[in-house]
Amino acid sequence: MTIESKPRIKITYATLRNDNEELHALYEAGVKASEAGLGGHHRNYVDGRWVDGRAGTFEARSPIDSSILLGTFAKGDRQDVVDAIAAARRAQPAWRRTPWQERLTMLRAAAELISERQMKYGADMAYEVGKNRLEALGEVEEAADLIRYYAQTMDDNAGYDHPMDNLGDMTVHTRTILRPHGVFAVISPFNFPMALAAGPISAALMAGNTVVFKPASASPLSGVNLIQAFADAGLPAGVVNLVMGPGDTVGEELQSNPGIDGIVFTGSYEVGFRLFRSFSTSWPRPCIVEMGGKNPAIVARSADLEEAAEGIMRSAFGFGGQKCSANSRVYVERPVHDELIRLLVEKTEKITIGNPIPRQNWLGPIIDAKAVARHQAAVAEARRDGTVFTGGEHLTDGDFARGFYVEPTVVGVPAAHRLFQDELFAPFTAVAAVDSLDEALTLANDSTYGLTAGVYSEDPAEVERFLDEIQAGVLYVNRRAGATTGAWPGVQAFGGWKGSGSTGKAGLSMYYVAQFMREQSHTVVD
Protein backbone atom coordinates (compact mmCIF):
# COMPACT_ATOMS: atom_id res chain seq x y z
CA MET A 1 0.00 0.00 0.00
CA THR A 2 1.47 3.35 -0.96
CA ILE A 3 1.30 6.38 1.30
CA GLU A 4 -0.80 8.22 -1.29
CA SER A 5 -3.42 5.46 -1.60
CA LYS A 6 -3.93 4.79 2.09
CA PRO A 7 -7.46 4.72 3.52
CA ARG A 8 -8.40 7.70 5.70
CA ILE A 9 -7.41 7.14 9.33
CA LYS A 10 -8.75 9.89 11.57
CA ILE A 11 -6.25 10.90 14.23
CA THR A 12 -7.21 13.83 16.49
CA TYR A 13 -5.75 15.41 19.61
CA ALA A 14 -8.23 13.43 21.69
CA THR A 15 -6.91 10.10 20.39
CA LEU A 16 -5.95 8.04 23.45
CA ARG A 17 -4.99 4.72 21.89
CA ASN A 18 -1.72 3.99 20.15
CA ASP A 19 -2.36 0.42 18.96
CA ASN A 20 -3.44 0.83 15.34
CA GLU A 21 -0.83 -1.30 13.60
CA GLU A 22 -1.87 -0.25 10.11
CA LEU A 23 -1.40 3.38 11.04
CA HIS A 24 2.08 2.74 12.45
CA ALA A 25 3.13 0.85 9.32
CA LEU A 26 1.96 3.72 7.14
CA TYR A 27 3.73 6.22 9.36
CA GLU A 28 7.01 4.31 9.15
CA ALA A 29 6.75 4.57 5.36
CA GLY A 30 6.16 8.30 5.82
CA VAL A 31 9.28 8.53 7.96
CA LYS A 32 11.35 6.93 5.20
CA ALA A 33 9.94 9.36 2.65
CA SER A 34 10.68 12.25 4.97
CA GLU A 35 14.24 11.13 5.64
CA ALA A 36 14.88 10.87 1.92
CA GLY A 37 14.08 14.57 1.59
CA LEU A 38 16.00 15.88 4.60
CA GLY A 39 18.64 18.43 3.74
CA GLY A 40 16.93 19.64 0.60
CA HIS A 41 16.68 23.22 -0.60
CA HIS A 42 13.33 25.01 -0.43
CA ARG A 43 12.42 28.29 -2.06
CA ASN A 44 9.85 31.00 -1.57
CA TYR A 45 6.67 30.93 -3.65
CA VAL A 46 5.70 34.23 -5.27
CA ASP A 47 3.30 34.83 -8.14
CA GLY A 48 3.02 31.12 -8.89
CA ARG A 49 6.78 30.50 -9.06
CA TRP A 50 9.31 29.02 -6.65
CA VAL A 51 11.99 31.71 -6.25
CA ASP A 52 15.15 32.39 -4.28
CA GLY A 53 15.29 34.96 -1.50
CA ARG A 54 17.29 38.13 -1.89
CA ALA A 55 18.91 37.65 1.53
CA GLY A 56 20.31 34.24 0.64
CA THR A 57 19.38 31.13 2.64
CA PHE A 58 19.07 29.92 6.20
CA GLU A 59 19.35 26.47 7.72
CA ALA A 60 16.75 24.75 9.87
CA ARG A 61 17.84 21.91 12.12
CA SER A 62 15.86 19.43 14.15
CA PRO A 63 15.37 20.00 17.90
CA ILE A 64 15.55 16.20 18.18
CA ASP A 65 19.20 16.24 17.17
CA SER A 66 20.98 19.36 15.98
CA SER A 67 23.08 17.29 13.59
CA ILE A 68 19.93 16.62 11.52
CA LEU A 69 19.65 19.27 8.81
CA LEU A 70 16.01 19.68 7.84
CA GLY A 71 17.00 21.76 4.85
CA THR A 72 18.12 25.11 3.58
CA PHE A 73 15.42 27.68 2.98
CA ALA A 74 15.16 30.85 0.96
CA LYS A 75 15.72 33.87 3.17
CA GLY A 76 13.51 36.72 2.05
CA ASP A 77 13.97 40.39 2.73
CA ARG A 78 11.63 43.38 2.66
CA GLN A 79 11.75 43.62 -1.12
CA ASP A 80 10.70 40.00 -1.44
CA VAL A 81 7.67 40.85 0.68
CA VAL A 82 6.94 43.91 -1.47
CA ASP A 83 7.06 41.68 -4.56
CA ALA A 84 4.75 39.12 -2.97
CA ILE A 85 2.25 41.81 -1.94
CA ALA A 86 2.30 43.20 -5.47
CA ALA A 87 1.61 39.72 -6.87
CA ALA A 88 -1.24 39.23 -4.40
CA ARG A 89 -2.76 42.58 -5.30
CA ARG A 90 -2.60 41.80 -9.02
CA ALA A 91 -4.26 38.43 -8.48
CA GLN A 92 -6.96 39.58 -6.07
CA PRO A 93 -9.52 41.14 -8.47
CA ALA A 94 -9.79 37.99 -10.58
CA TRP A 95 -9.82 35.77 -7.49
CA ARG A 96 -12.57 37.88 -5.92
CA ARG A 97 -14.66 37.54 -9.08
CA THR A 98 -14.13 33.79 -9.22
CA PRO A 99 -17.44 32.25 -8.08
CA TRP A 100 -17.10 31.24 -4.47
CA GLN A 101 -18.12 27.69 -5.34
CA GLU A 102 -15.08 27.41 -7.62
CA ARG A 103 -12.81 28.79 -4.92
CA LEU A 104 -14.09 26.14 -2.54
CA THR A 105 -13.54 23.37 -5.10
CA MET A 106 -9.85 24.25 -5.34
CA LEU A 107 -9.42 24.55 -1.60
CA ARG A 108 -11.20 21.27 -0.95
CA ALA A 109 -8.83 19.68 -3.44
CA ALA A 110 -5.92 21.03 -1.37
CA ALA A 111 -7.44 19.45 1.75
CA GLU A 112 -7.58 16.07 0.02
CA LEU A 113 -3.94 16.39 -1.02
CA ILE A 114 -2.93 17.18 2.57
CA SER A 115 -4.77 14.09 3.82
CA GLU A 116 -3.22 11.92 1.10
CA ARG A 117 0.23 13.15 2.15
CA GLN A 118 -0.52 12.89 5.87
CA MET A 119 2.19 10.36 6.69
CA LYS A 120 5.01 12.20 4.91
CA TYR A 121 3.88 15.61 6.13
CA GLY A 122 3.49 14.25 9.66
CA ALA A 123 6.98 12.78 9.69
CA ASP A 124 8.41 16.04 8.35
CA MET A 125 6.68 17.86 11.19
CA ALA A 126 7.97 15.41 13.78
CA TYR A 127 11.55 16.03 12.65
CA GLU A 128 10.92 19.76 12.39
CA VAL A 129 9.40 20.57 15.79
CA GLY A 130 9.67 17.34 17.80
CA LYS A 131 6.05 16.17 17.91
CA ASN A 132 5.32 12.52 18.53
CA ARG A 133 3.58 10.63 15.75
CA LEU A 134 0.01 11.00 16.99
CA GLU A 135 0.48 14.72 17.61
CA ALA A 136 2.03 15.27 14.19
CA LEU A 137 -0.51 13.17 12.32
CA GLY A 138 -3.30 14.85 14.25
CA GLU A 139 -2.10 18.28 13.22
CA VAL A 140 -1.82 17.39 9.54
CA GLU A 141 -5.36 16.03 9.57
CA GLU A 142 -6.56 19.10 11.45
CA ALA A 143 -5.09 21.30 8.72
CA ALA A 144 -7.12 19.39 6.13
CA ASP A 145 -10.25 19.38 8.30
CA LEU A 146 -9.98 23.12 8.89
CA ILE A 147 -10.19 23.66 5.15
CA ARG A 148 -13.11 21.24 4.84
CA TYR A 149 -15.01 22.72 7.75
CA TYR A 150 -14.53 26.34 6.73
CA ALA A 151 -15.63 25.44 3.20
CA GLN A 152 -18.76 23.88 4.66
CA THR A 153 -19.55 27.04 6.63
CA MET A 154 -19.17 29.08 3.44
CA ASP A 155 -21.52 26.65 1.70
CA ASP A 156 -24.01 26.75 4.56
CA ASN A 157 -24.14 30.55 4.30
CA ALA A 158 -24.53 30.59 0.51
CA GLY A 159 -21.29 32.50 0.14
CA TYR A 160 -22.50 35.00 2.75
CA ASP A 161 -25.01 36.51 0.33
CA HIS A 162 -28.46 36.76 1.91
CA PRO A 163 -31.72 38.49 0.90
CA MET A 164 -33.17 41.01 3.35
CA ASP A 165 -36.67 42.30 3.98
CA ASN A 166 -38.24 45.30 2.26
CA LEU A 167 -40.81 47.82 3.43
CA GLY A 168 -43.63 46.66 1.21
CA ASP A 169 -42.53 48.10 -2.13
CA MET A 170 -42.04 45.02 -4.32
CA THR A 171 -39.93 47.01 -6.77
CA VAL A 172 -37.20 47.33 -4.13
CA HIS A 173 -34.83 44.39 -3.61
CA THR A 174 -32.38 44.35 -0.74
CA ARG A 175 -29.66 41.96 0.32
CA THR A 176 -26.58 41.82 2.50
CA ILE A 177 -23.35 40.41 1.17
CA LEU A 178 -19.92 39.96 2.70
CA ARG A 179 -17.03 41.16 0.54
CA PRO A 180 -13.28 40.45 0.87
CA HIS A 181 -10.91 43.09 2.13
CA GLY A 182 -8.14 42.47 -0.40
CA VAL A 183 -4.75 41.08 0.66
CA PHE A 184 -4.18 39.34 4.00
CA ALA A 185 -0.88 38.62 5.70
CA VAL A 186 -0.67 35.40 7.73
CA ILE A 187 2.15 34.95 10.25
CA SER A 188 2.13 31.50 11.85
CA PRO A 189 3.94 30.05 14.92
CA PHE A 190 6.27 27.08 15.19
CA ASN A 191 4.09 24.97 17.48
CA PHE A 192 1.27 24.27 15.01
CA PRO A 193 3.17 25.00 11.79
CA MET A 194 0.55 23.55 9.43
CA ALA A 195 -2.83 23.89 11.18
CA LEU A 196 -2.34 27.49 12.31
CA ALA A 197 -1.33 28.39 8.77
CA ALA A 198 -3.90 26.33 6.86
CA GLY A 199 -6.80 27.70 8.89
CA PRO A 200 -6.34 31.45 8.34
CA ILE A 201 -4.92 31.09 4.82
CA SER A 202 -7.84 28.99 3.62
CA ALA A 203 -10.43 31.18 5.34
CA ALA A 204 -8.94 34.30 3.75
CA LEU A 205 -8.88 32.64 0.34
CA MET A 206 -12.44 31.34 0.60
CA ALA A 207 -13.57 34.87 1.35
CA GLY A 208 -11.98 36.13 -1.86
CA ASN A 209 -8.81 37.63 -0.42
CA THR A 210 -5.31 36.76 -1.55
CA VAL A 211 -2.54 35.95 0.91
CA VAL A 212 1.12 36.52 1.72
CA PHE A 213 2.28 33.93 4.26
CA LYS A 214 5.30 33.94 6.57
CA PRO A 215 5.95 30.75 8.57
CA ALA A 216 8.02 30.70 11.74
CA SER A 217 11.72 30.39 10.97
CA ALA A 218 11.89 27.36 13.29
CA SER A 219 9.30 25.48 11.20
CA PRO A 220 9.53 26.48 7.53
CA LEU A 221 9.26 22.94 6.13
CA SER A 222 5.62 22.48 7.11
CA GLY A 223 4.91 25.87 5.57
CA VAL A 224 6.49 24.77 2.30
CA ASN A 225 4.48 21.54 2.36
CA LEU A 226 1.25 23.46 2.86
CA ILE A 227 1.93 25.85 0.01
CA GLN A 228 2.88 22.91 -2.22
CA ALA A 229 -0.56 21.40 -1.59
CA PHE A 230 -2.25 24.70 -2.48
CA ALA A 231 -0.18 25.00 -5.64
CA ASP A 232 -0.86 21.40 -6.67
CA ALA A 233 -4.59 22.00 -6.12
CA GLY A 234 -4.51 24.57 -8.91
CA LEU A 235 -4.74 27.90 -7.13
CA PRO A 236 -3.94 30.66 -9.64
CA ALA A 237 -0.61 32.48 -9.59
CA GLY A 238 -0.40 35.20 -6.95
CA VAL A 239 -3.39 34.00 -4.95
CA VAL A 240 -1.21 32.52 -2.20
CA ASN A 241 2.42 33.52 -1.70
CA LEU A 242 5.14 32.31 0.68
CA VAL A 243 8.03 34.44 1.94
CA MET A 244 10.31 32.89 4.55
CA GLY A 245 12.72 34.89 6.62
CA PRO A 246 13.27 36.80 9.87
CA GLY A 247 10.57 38.56 11.80
CA ASP A 248 12.52 41.83 11.92
CA THR A 249 12.49 42.11 8.10
CA VAL A 250 9.86 39.86 6.53
CA GLY A 251 7.49 40.09 9.48
CA GLU A 252 7.94 43.82 9.93
CA GLU A 253 7.26 44.52 6.26
CA LEU A 254 4.05 42.50 6.40
CA GLN A 255 2.94 44.49 9.46
CA SER A 256 3.81 47.93 8.11
CA ASN A 257 3.20 47.73 4.35
CA PRO A 258 0.04 49.65 3.35
CA GLY A 259 -0.63 47.03 0.66
CA ILE A 260 -1.75 44.62 3.40
CA ASP A 261 -5.47 45.01 4.12
CA GLY A 262 -5.67 42.60 7.05
CA ILE A 263 -3.39 40.43 9.13
CA VAL A 264 -3.51 37.22 11.16
CA PHE A 265 -0.84 36.62 13.80
CA THR A 266 -0.50 33.77 16.28
CA GLY A 267 2.15 34.12 18.95
CA SER A 268 3.01 35.79 22.23
CA TYR A 269 0.84 38.32 24.06
CA GLU A 270 3.60 40.92 23.94
CA VAL A 271 4.10 40.75 20.17
CA GLY A 272 0.44 40.22 19.33
CA PHE A 273 -0.88 43.09 21.44
CA ARG A 274 1.79 45.44 20.09
CA LEU A 275 0.71 44.49 16.57
CA PHE A 276 -2.96 44.97 17.46
CA ARG A 277 -2.29 48.48 18.75
CA SER A 278 -0.14 49.56 15.80
CA PHE A 279 -1.56 47.82 12.73
CA SER A 280 -4.35 50.25 11.87
CA THR A 281 -3.17 53.65 10.67
CA SER A 282 -5.39 55.59 8.23
CA TRP A 283 -8.48 53.53 9.14
CA PRO A 284 -9.24 50.34 11.09
CA ARG A 285 -7.98 47.19 9.41
CA PRO A 286 -8.81 43.65 10.53
CA CYS A 287 -6.15 42.37 12.90
CA ILE A 288 -6.84 38.83 14.08
CA VAL A 289 -4.36 37.94 16.80
CA GLU A 290 -4.27 34.86 19.01
CA MET A 291 -1.94 35.55 21.90
CA GLY A 292 -1.54 32.45 23.99
CA GLY A 293 -2.83 31.40 27.37
CA LYS A 294 -2.14 30.54 30.99
CA ASN A 295 -4.80 27.92 31.24
CA PRO A 296 -6.23 26.73 34.55
CA ALA A 297 -7.73 23.43 35.61
CA ILE A 298 -9.87 23.34 38.73
CA VAL A 299 -10.15 20.08 40.67
CA ALA A 300 -13.02 19.94 43.13
CA ARG A 301 -13.13 17.64 46.13
CA SER A 302 -15.89 15.69 44.36
CA ALA A 303 -13.73 14.99 41.30
CA ASP A 304 -12.67 11.64 39.91
CA LEU A 305 -9.01 12.21 40.76
CA GLU A 306 -7.63 9.54 38.45
CA GLU A 307 -9.48 11.14 35.53
CA ALA A 308 -8.29 14.59 36.59
CA ALA A 309 -4.64 13.54 36.89
CA GLU A 310 -4.72 11.93 33.45
CA GLY A 311 -6.31 14.99 31.83
CA ILE A 312 -3.91 17.39 33.52
CA MET A 313 -0.87 15.32 32.56
CA ARG A 314 -1.94 15.13 28.92
CA SER A 315 -2.70 18.85 28.68
CA ALA A 316 0.31 20.03 30.64
CA PHE A 317 2.92 17.90 28.90
CA GLY A 318 1.57 17.06 25.45
CA PHE A 319 4.08 18.44 22.91
CA GLY A 320 6.17 19.62 25.84
CA GLY A 321 3.60 22.16 26.99
CA GLN A 322 4.26 24.16 23.82
CA LYS A 323 0.59 24.82 23.17
CA CYS A 324 -1.24 28.05 23.82
CA SER A 325 -3.90 25.82 25.40
CA ALA A 326 -1.52 23.90 27.69
CA ASN A 327 -2.68 23.30 31.26
CA SER A 328 0.02 25.25 33.07
CA ARG A 329 -1.76 25.94 36.40
CA VAL A 330 -3.99 23.81 38.62
CA TYR A 331 -6.18 24.80 41.56
CA VAL A 332 -7.23 21.82 43.68
CA GLU A 333 -9.41 21.79 46.77
CA ARG A 334 -7.30 21.14 49.82
CA PRO A 335 -8.87 17.84 50.99
CA VAL A 336 -7.83 16.11 47.75
CA HIS A 337 -4.61 18.02 47.03
CA ASP A 338 -2.16 15.39 48.22
CA GLU A 339 -3.88 12.53 46.43
CA LEU A 340 -4.06 14.49 43.18
CA ILE A 341 -0.35 15.28 43.44
CA ARG A 342 0.41 11.62 44.08
CA LEU A 343 -1.51 10.51 40.99
CA LEU A 344 -0.17 13.32 38.81
CA VAL A 345 3.43 12.57 39.80
CA GLU A 346 2.87 8.86 39.17
CA LYS A 347 1.54 9.50 35.67
CA THR A 348 4.20 12.10 34.87
CA GLU A 349 7.03 9.77 35.85
CA LYS A 350 5.73 7.14 33.44
CA ILE A 351 6.14 9.47 30.46
CA THR A 352 8.69 8.15 27.97
CA ILE A 353 11.06 10.90 26.85
CA GLY A 354 13.27 10.81 23.80
CA ASN A 355 13.45 11.04 20.04
CA PRO A 356 9.75 11.18 19.09
CA ILE A 357 10.20 9.40 15.76
CA PRO A 358 10.24 5.92 17.40
CA ARG A 359 6.84 4.73 18.50
CA GLN A 360 7.70 4.22 22.16
CA ASN A 361 8.50 7.86 23.01
CA TRP A 362 5.60 10.13 23.97
CA LEU A 363 7.52 13.32 24.83
CA GLY A 364 10.13 14.72 22.50
CA PRO A 365 12.33 17.80 22.76
CA ILE A 366 11.24 21.39 23.21
CA ILE A 367 11.99 23.74 20.37
CA ASP A 368 15.37 25.36 21.17
CA ALA A 369 17.95 26.41 23.73
CA LYS A 370 15.92 29.50 24.74
CA ALA A 371 13.01 27.25 25.66
CA VAL A 372 15.32 25.07 27.74
CA ALA A 373 16.66 28.15 29.56
CA ARG A 374 13.10 29.38 30.23
CA HIS A 375 12.16 25.97 31.69
CA GLN A 376 15.26 25.83 33.86
CA ALA A 377 14.72 29.35 35.18
CA ALA A 378 11.18 28.41 36.19
CA VAL A 379 12.42 25.25 37.91
CA ALA A 380 14.98 27.27 39.86
CA GLU A 381 12.27 29.65 41.05
CA ALA A 382 10.06 26.76 42.11
CA ARG A 383 12.90 25.17 44.08
CA ARG A 384 13.56 28.50 45.79
CA ASP A 385 9.95 29.44 46.54
CA GLY A 386 8.13 26.12 46.80
CA THR A 387 8.38 22.43 45.98
CA VAL A 388 9.32 20.51 42.84
CA PHE A 389 7.18 17.39 43.10
CA THR A 390 8.73 15.71 40.07
CA GLY A 391 10.94 16.48 37.09
CA GLY A 392 12.81 19.68 36.47
CA GLU A 393 16.04 18.35 34.97
CA HIS A 394 17.67 19.34 31.71
CA LEU A 395 18.54 16.01 30.08
CA THR A 396 21.99 16.01 28.51
CA ASP A 397 23.31 12.44 28.64
CA GLY A 398 23.90 10.39 25.50
CA ASP A 399 21.62 11.19 22.59
CA PHE A 400 19.89 13.86 24.67
CA ALA A 401 23.04 16.00 24.38
CA ARG A 402 22.37 16.86 20.74
CA GLY A 403 18.76 17.97 21.30
CA PHE A 404 16.68 20.09 23.66
CA TYR A 405 15.22 17.73 26.23
CA VAL A 406 13.85 18.53 29.67
CA GLU A 407 11.83 16.56 32.19
CA PRO A 408 8.12 17.31 32.54
CA THR A 409 7.77 19.19 35.80
CA VAL A 410 5.09 19.50 38.48
CA VAL A 411 5.63 22.13 41.16
CA GLY A 412 3.85 23.62 44.13
CA VAL A 413 4.28 27.36 44.74
CA PRO A 414 2.06 30.04 46.33
CA ALA A 415 -0.93 30.94 44.18
CA ALA A 416 0.30 34.54 43.87
CA HIS A 417 3.62 33.42 42.36
CA ARG A 418 4.54 34.61 38.87
CA LEU A 419 4.65 30.97 37.74
CA PHE A 420 0.86 31.07 37.92
CA GLN A 421 0.79 34.16 35.67
CA ASP A 422 3.48 33.99 32.98
CA GLU A 423 3.19 31.74 29.94
CA LEU A 424 6.26 29.48 29.85
CA PHE A 425 5.67 27.32 26.75
CA ALA A 426 7.43 24.37 28.38
CA PRO A 427 6.45 21.08 30.09
CA PHE A 428 5.78 22.74 33.42
CA THR A 429 2.65 23.03 35.53
CA ALA A 430 2.12 24.68 38.93
CA VAL A 431 -0.37 23.40 41.50
CA ALA A 432 -1.91 25.27 44.42
CA ALA A 433 -4.31 24.11 47.11
CA VAL A 434 -7.48 26.17 47.60
CA ASP A 435 -10.21 26.12 50.21
CA SER A 436 -13.24 26.38 47.94
CA LEU A 437 -14.57 26.61 44.40
CA ASP A 438 -15.02 30.35 45.05
CA GLU A 439 -11.31 30.76 45.63
CA ALA A 440 -10.42 28.59 42.62
CA LEU A 441 -12.63 30.62 40.27
CA THR A 442 -11.24 33.90 41.58
CA LEU A 443 -7.65 32.76 41.07
CA ALA A 444 -8.40 31.20 37.68
CA ASN A 445 -9.92 34.45 36.42
CA ASP A 446 -7.12 36.62 37.81
CA SER A 447 -5.11 36.52 34.60
CA THR A 448 -4.33 38.58 31.55
CA TYR A 449 -5.21 35.50 29.52
CA GLY A 450 -8.51 33.77 28.85
CA LEU A 451 -8.02 31.01 26.31
CA THR A 452 -8.95 27.58 27.74
CA ALA A 453 -9.97 26.20 31.12
CA GLY A 454 -11.10 22.91 32.60
CA VAL A 455 -12.88 21.61 35.65
CA TYR A 456 -13.15 18.20 37.31
CA SER A 457 -16.22 17.82 39.49
CA GLU A 458 -19.01 15.31 39.98
CA ASP A 459 -21.34 18.03 41.30
CA PRO A 460 -23.62 19.38 38.52
CA ALA A 461 -24.10 22.68 40.34
CA GLU A 462 -20.34 23.22 40.52
CA VAL A 463 -19.99 22.42 36.83
CA GLU A 464 -22.72 24.90 35.89
CA ARG A 465 -21.12 27.57 38.02
CA PHE A 466 -17.76 26.97 36.35
CA LEU A 467 -19.31 27.22 32.89
CA ASP A 468 -21.10 30.43 33.87
CA GLU A 469 -18.29 32.26 35.65
CA ILE A 470 -14.96 31.22 34.13
CA GLN A 471 -13.44 33.87 31.86
CA ALA A 472 -12.11 31.83 28.95
CA GLY A 473 -13.21 30.97 25.45
CA VAL A 474 -12.76 27.17 25.42
CA LEU A 475 -14.08 25.11 28.31
CA TYR A 476 -13.79 21.42 29.16
CA VAL A 477 -15.50 19.42 31.89
CA ASN A 478 -14.20 16.08 33.24
CA ARG A 479 -12.12 15.44 30.13
CA ARG A 480 -9.65 12.56 30.42
CA ALA A 481 -8.17 13.24 26.98
CA GLY A 482 -7.02 16.69 28.06
CA ALA A 483 -7.99 19.11 30.82
CA THR A 484 -7.58 22.21 28.64
CA THR A 485 -6.44 20.98 25.20
CA GLY A 486 -7.70 19.13 22.17
CA ALA A 487 -10.11 21.29 20.13
CA TRP A 488 -11.09 20.08 16.65
CA PRO A 489 -12.68 21.89 13.67
CA GLY A 490 -16.45 21.87 13.85
CA VAL A 491 -16.38 20.17 17.25
CA GLN A 492 -14.92 22.74 19.65
CA ALA A 493 -14.64 26.39 18.70
CA PHE A 494 -11.18 27.67 19.66
CA GLY A 495 -10.72 31.32 20.55
CA GLY A 496 -9.59 33.40 23.49
CA TRP A 497 -11.03 36.09 25.70
CA LYS A 498 -9.13 39.01 27.25
CA GLY A 499 -5.42 38.92 26.35
CA SER A 500 -5.74 35.65 24.45
CA GLY A 501 -7.57 36.92 21.38
CA SER A 502 -8.61 40.09 19.59
CA THR A 503 -11.96 39.43 17.94
CA GLY A 504 -14.24 37.48 20.26
CA LYS A 505 -14.84 35.05 17.38
CA ALA A 506 -13.21 31.67 17.47
CA GLY A 507 -11.28 29.58 15.03
CA LEU A 508 -12.57 26.08 14.24
CA SER A 509 -16.12 27.51 14.28
CA MET A 510 -18.82 28.72 11.93
CA TYR A 511 -17.98 32.38 12.57
CA TYR A 512 -14.35 32.30 11.47
CA VAL A 513 -14.51 32.87 7.70
CA ALA A 514 -16.76 35.91 8.11
CA GLN A 515 -13.92 37.71 9.91
CA PHE A 516 -12.07 37.93 6.60
CA MET A 517 -14.91 39.89 4.98
CA ARG A 518 -16.81 43.14 5.42
CA GLU A 519 -20.52 43.62 5.04
CA GLN A 520 -22.14 45.53 2.20
CA SER A 521 -25.85 46.29 1.81
CA HIS A 522 -27.40 46.31 -1.66
CA THR A 523 -30.68 48.12 -2.35
CA VAL A 524 -31.79 47.85 -5.98
CA VAL A 525 -34.93 49.50 -7.35
CA ASP A 526 -36.48 48.04 -10.50
The tally of helices reads: 14
**Level of helix content?**
25-40%
Largest sheet features = 7 strands, mixed
Tally of structural domains:
2
Detail the poorly predicted runs: 1-7
Q: Averaging pLDDT over every residue, what do you get?
A: 96
Instruction: Give the CA-based shape.
Output: globular
The CATH superfamily name of the largest domain is Aldehyde Dehydrogenase, Chain A, domain 1
Spatial separation of the terminal alpha carbons = 61 Å
Tell me the structural class.
alpha/beta
Strand content: 15-25%
- In the CATH scheme, the class of the largest domain would be Alpha Beta
Strand order across the largest sheet: 15-18-19-14-13-21-22
Q: Can you characterise this structure?
A:
With 526 residues, the chain is α/β, with parallel strands linked by helices. 37% of the residues lie in helices and 20% in strands. The strands form seven sheets. The chain has a seven-stranded mixed beta sheet with strand order 15-18-19-14-13-21-22, sandwiched between helices. A five-stranded parallel beta sheet has the order 10-9-8-11-12, with helices on both faces. Helix 1 (21-37) packs across helix 4, helix 4 packs antiparallel against helix 7 (220-232) and helix 10 packs across helix 11. The protein is globular and about 75 Å long.
